[in-house]
Write a structure and sequence with these properties.
The protein has helices spanning 25-36, 48-61, 77-90, 118-139, 172-197, 215-218, 229-241, 245-248, 250-257, 291-305, 312-321, and strands at residues 16-20, 40-45, 67-71, 96-99, 145-149, 202-206, 266-269, 279-281. It has 323 residues and is α/β, with parallel strands linked by helices. The protein is globular, with a radius of gyration of 18 Å. Residues 216-221 have low confidence and may be disordered.
């Protein structure tokens, strides 16, 4: 994996990729690289105007790129359902689903349209619902993969089932860490399920290290009129510890496209503390490997979203039987 770059992405012609939150940062760089490698890319994100600009930018970078935009607000289960319905109706299959969108370090507690703590809701619960709704299409894909973007923050995370929505106590960083631990556990549990069910699906995770994107300012500025203390501190560290969004996208791209990428693992930068560097196997802390917590989180997520895996494999098998 040493020095793995976008030039090492295998030809993606004929593959269909759906990427959440790809109008900027890691998601944008991922979408641009996949489109440049020949994939048909669907960008699912909230901001329609930014979506139009993103499509224009990718087409300017790669003439003939096949890219489109689908409105998606992961903080609304209704929006998730509507987006999944449109994608399921318009796509013959999904070969690659990348759960990239996220928000970080909101200073005060906000909730989603459905009453979930915003970071858990947008980063994890919305993606959980989207994936379960799209799974039949993914299982119809050609050697399909689901890549979920986690974070180094998972190392300090804890799934607090007694106060999952941070109603009793809210800490902006602990809430973020919980949400990114949840995304990682989702990825690992999904891969375990896929192997147990005999599905032709590879689920893995990636993290960008410390990549400079809008993530460092969007969340921390919610409810503020200017830069937060955290944002100012981050700016001081960037020259020494950070890397570009393009470099931060490489672990995701490796997980999504490399023949050497495995399921049930996470990829990240290979440098000091995994802050920057070339894609490599990333550390998953012991607390994130508790399979009992994986399963309980999955069950709670099914309850919160009103969705389950019942019938998913059957729906996929029936679709494959159709002429």
């Amino acid at each position: 994996m040493a020095d793995w770059m976008t030039k090492d992405i295998p030809d993606q012609t004929g593959r269909i990729a759906v990427i959440t939150g790809a109008t900027s940062g890691i998601g944008y760089e991922t979408a641009k690289a996949l489109a440049g490698a020949g994939a048909r890319v669907i960008i699912a994100s909230r901001n329609v105007e930014k979506g139009k600009q993103t499509l224009s930018d990718i087409r300017a970078a790669h003439a003939g790129a096949e890219v489109s935009f689908e409105p998606l607000d992961l903080a609304s289960l209704t929006s998730v359902a509507n987006c999944a319905t449109r994608l399921s109706a318009s796509l013959p299959r999904i070969d690659l689903l990348i759960n990239n969108a996220g928000v970080m370090a909101i200073p005060t507690r906000h909730v989603t349209e459905d009453g979930f703590e915003m970071q858990l809701g947008a980063n994890y619960i919305g993606h959980f619902a989207l994936n379960l709704r799209l799974l039949p299409k993914v299982l119809s894909g050609n050697a399909p993969r689901i890549v979920t973007v986690s974070s180094l923050a998972h190392r300090s995370g804890k799934i607090n089932f007694d106060d999952l929505q941070c109603e009793q106590r809210y800490g902006y960083w602990s809430a973020y860490a919980q949400s990114k631990l949840a995304t990682l556990m989702f990825s690992l549990e999904l891969d375990r399920m896929a192997r147990a069910q005999g599905w032709n699906l590879r689920s893995n995770a990636a993290h960008p290290g410390y990549a400079v994107t809008g993530l460092q300012s969007t969340g921390p500025r919610m409810g503020r009129t200017g830069p937060s203390r955290q944002e100012r501190f981050s700016k001081l560290l960037e020259p020494l510890l950070s890397q570009s969004a393009a470099a931060g996208a490489l672990p995701t791209l490796f997980a999504a496209t490399s023949p050497d990428a495995k399921g049930g693992v996470m990829y990240g930068p290979d440098g000091f503390y995994e802050l920057k560097g070339s894609p490599a196997l990333a550390e998953i802390v012991p607390a994130a490997q508790d399979k009992a917590v994986w399963r309980r989180l999955w069950q709670v997520s099914e309850y919160l979203t009103g969705l389950s895996l019942d019938g998913v494999a059957e729906a996929s098998a029936e679709r494959k039987r159709q002429p």
